[in-house]
From TrEMBL:
MF terms (GO), sorted A to Z: methyl-CpG binding
Superkingdom classification of source: Eukaryota
Gene3D superfamilies named in the record: Methyl-cpg-binding Protein 2, Chain A
Region of interest (Disordered), ranges: 93-121
Keyword Lipid metabolism: no
Keyword check for Metal-binding: no
Keywords: DNA-binding, Nucleus, Transcription, Transcription regulation
Name of the featured protein: Methyl-CpG-binding domain protein 2
Pfam families associated with the record: MBD (PF01429), MBD_C (PF14048)
Biased composition (Basic and acidic residues): 106-118
UniProt domain MBD: residue ranges: 24-92
Organism: Schistocephalus solidus
GO-annotated cellular components: nucleoplasm
């Protein structure tokens, strides 16, 4: 590629001749990737703020100068795309020449009505692959329905609560437990607390209710370590068939008394039952 140097003419300042050392132009040969006749010129600054730097611009065959990529795009037209054009070297980093073909064949286009509402989304990401260094290792999944931890001795907060009769406004007598149900040695637990503890165990337990397996002295010595949280704080008890028959007999007796009270205080109820 031929190189041509050109220097500005001398400048007369105060009767003395001085050379303009501000710029020296170097014009390179014809560029191969631009249209025929285009030239690349580089200006080197010798003094001033831009001393030692150079400015690159391009000249068309008609003499027009392009000092920015935007001006170069306007001069080249739509046939070239200067987005991949390296301004310093004067080369395209990729094939940016737009191919224009006069194809008169109709192209397949999607319907405007359906294409307007079509949604363009990115392809789904690949699922992560877990590679284990131990072939015999097994992965244990956490249960999805994990029970919330229960606070120990939470029934003690209900010590001041009482059951109030809505009609009279007075407190009802506290309920009692059968004699076979006794405390296992939980600190501060009386019969009132044991009833609430049994209610929570019966409503939330999925297995059988058997009570505590540890003896009372062991639980009283270290209740936090000896108590089984999944069982109520009562001694280990076994419900026999005789206990079940007694409970059934008691339920039948209460139902009979309730039926007699309804017939006594509401005769219409007895007539409806007979009819």
């Amino acid at each position: 590629m031929a190189t041509q140097q050109r220097q500005h003419p001398n400048i007369v300042v105060g009767g003395q001749k001085k050379f303009n050392q501000a710029a020296v132009y170097k014009t390179h040969g014809v560029l191969s990737q631009l249209p025929p006749g285009w030239k690349r010129e580089e200006v080197f600054r010798c003094n001033g703020l831009n001393s030692g730097k150079s400015i690159v611009f391009y000249v068309t065959p008609t003499g027009q100068q392009a000092r920015t990529p935007k001006e170069l795009q306007l001069l080249l037209g739509d046939k070239f795309d200067v987005a991949d054009f390296d301004w310093r070297s004067g080369k395209f980093s990729s094939q940016s020449l737009k191919s224009k073909t006069n194809d008169s064949t109709p192209k397949n286009r999607s319907d405007d009505k359906t294409d307007w509402f079509s949604r363009r989304v990115s392809p789904p990401l690949p699922k992560p692959l877990i590679v284990s260094s131990h072939n015999d290792s097994k992965r244990i999944e956490k249960p999805s329905t994990a029970d919330c931890p229960k606070q120990l001795f939470s029934e003690l907060r209900l010590s001041d609560s009482q059951t109030i009769d809505s009609r009279t406004g007075f407190a009802l007598p506290p309920p009692t437990l059968p004699k076979i149900i006794q405390t296992a040695g939980a600190p501060g637990y009386n019969e009132f607390h044991l009833i609430h503890n049994l209610m929570c165990a019966l409503s939330g337990a999925s297995g059988p209710i058997t009570g505590q397996d540890q003896p009372v002295p062991t639980i009283e010595k270290n209740p936090c370590a000896s108590l089984n949280h999944a069982q109520p704080f009562v001694k280990n008890l076994i419900i026999t068939d005789e206990d079940i028959r007694k409970q059934q007999h008691r339920v039948k007796e209460l139902r009979r008394k309730l039926e007699a009270a309804r017939r006594k205080y509401n005769p219409r109820y007895s007539n409806d039952r007979e009819g």
